[in-house]
Amino acid sequence: xxxxxxxxxxxxxxxxxxxxxxxxxxxxxxxxxxxxxxxxxxxxxxxxxxxxxxxxxxxxxxxxxxxxxxxxxxxxxxxxxxxxxxxxxxxxxxxxxxxxxxxxxxxxxxxxxxxxxxxxxxxxxxxxxxxxxxxxxxxxxxxxxxxxxxxxxxxxxxxxxxxxxxxxxxxxxxxxxxxxxxxxxxxxxxxxxxxxxxxxxxxxxxxxxxxxxxxxxxxxxxxxxxxxxxxxxxxxxxxxxxxxxxxxxxxxxxxxxxxxxxxxxxxxxxxxxxxxxxxxxxxxxxxxxxxxxxxxxxxxxxxxxxxxxxxxxxxxxxxxxxxxxxxxx
Length: 329
Ligand SMILES: NC(=O)c1ccc[n+]([C@@H]2O[C@H](COP(=O)([O-])OP(=O)(O)OC[C@H]3O[C@@H](n4cnc5c(N)ncnc54)[C@H](O)[C@@H]3O)[C@@H](O)[C@H]2O)c1
What we know:
Elements: E1 6-11, H1 15-27, E2 31-37, H2 41-50, E3 57-58, H3 61-67, E4 72-75, H4 82-92, E5 96-98, H5 106-123, E6 128-130, H6 138-149, E7 155-163, H7 174-191, E8 195-202, E9 217-223, E10 228-234, E11 242-249, E12 252-256, E13 262-265, H8 282-285, H9 287-301, E14 310-311, H10 312-326
Parallel strand pairs: 1-2, 1-4, 2-3, 4-5, 5-6, 7-10
Antiparallel strand pairs: 6-14, 7-11, 8-9, 9-10, 11-12, 12-13
Helix pairs in contact: 1-9, 4-5, 5-10, 7-10
This protein binds nicotinamide-adenine-dinucleotide (NAD).
C-alpha cells in the first residue's frame, strides 16, 4: 500500500530548524515540507532556497496554521516560545514535535501537562512530543542495550559532560533549562530510572563567558535505584563541541566518546580509537539521532504509537528535577 505523503510545517530557520528542514525534505521519504514559519524573512528564504523548496514562508506559527493544512509541525523556535506554540497546536489539534525544553518555567510546564492530558483523553493519543533526541542516538541506544543485557552487571556510577563551544545570550538559569535538561532526560531514559536528588556545584566561571554568567556548572545527583550521576555543563568551552558519558558497571566500563564512539572496557581489555577532529556544534554528532527521531515522529503521524519519543510528561519531569536546584543558580 502506498503511504500518504505527510504535510509537515517547520517553525524556526535557525540551527535546529535548518536541520529539521534538511532531514524532513532530504532524508525521510513520504514527507513534504509545506510551510516554514520564521520571522526573519532572509533566513526563511535562504533555507527554502537551499533545499529548493517551493512552499510558502510565514512570519509566525499562527499564520502558517491559518493558511496551510498540516499533518504535523516541528517546532524549533527559541525556548521562550515553546509553551505558547504547544498551546496553539493543542488548541488546533495539530500534532507537534517541539524541541526541548517543554517550557522555561515549572508553572508553564504544569499548565501544558494539564492541557496535554485533556487532549490525550479527547484524542486517545498524544499530540505533542518533545525533541529529547538523545533517546534516538545509535551509540546511546547501544549503551541502553548493554545495560538491558545485564552482561556487565548493574550500573553503579555515571559521569557525563555536555559542553557547547559558545552559547551567545544564554543566562545562568538556562544552563539548566537549555543544556542540562538533556542530561536529566537522557539519564531517566538510559537507566530506566528516576532522579532522586540533584545538586549544582559552581566553581570559578570561565573568563570567556560574559560577566555574571555561571559557566560551567557541575550537577551531582542520584537515582531512585542508587546510581550516582555527575555531569558537567559548559556553555562556552571554546575548544570544540564535546558530549561524552562514561558508565561504570559492576564488571566493566562503557564510554560514549565525543564522536559517539562506544568503548567497552572489560576483562582487562581497552580497545583503541584513532584521533578525530572536534565539531563546532551538535549537528554532526547527533545527525542520525535527529533523523531517527523524525522518522519515529512521522510514524506517529501515520498512527503508529511511539514508546520512545519523549512526551509532555517527560518534559515536565525534567523541569521538576531541575526545579530542585534552579533557585540556587
Ligand atoms: N535537540 C537538540 O539537540 C537541540 C540542540 C540545539 C538547540 N535545541 C533547541 O532548538 C530550539 C532552537 O534552537 P536553535 O539553536 O536553532 O536557535 P536559533 O537561534 O539558531 O534559531 C531560532 C530561530 O527561530 C526564529 N524565531 C524566533 N522567534 C520565533 C517565533 N516566534 N516563531 C518562529 N520562529 C522564531 C529565530 O528568528 C531563529 O531563526 C531551541 O529551543 C533550543 O533549545 C535543541
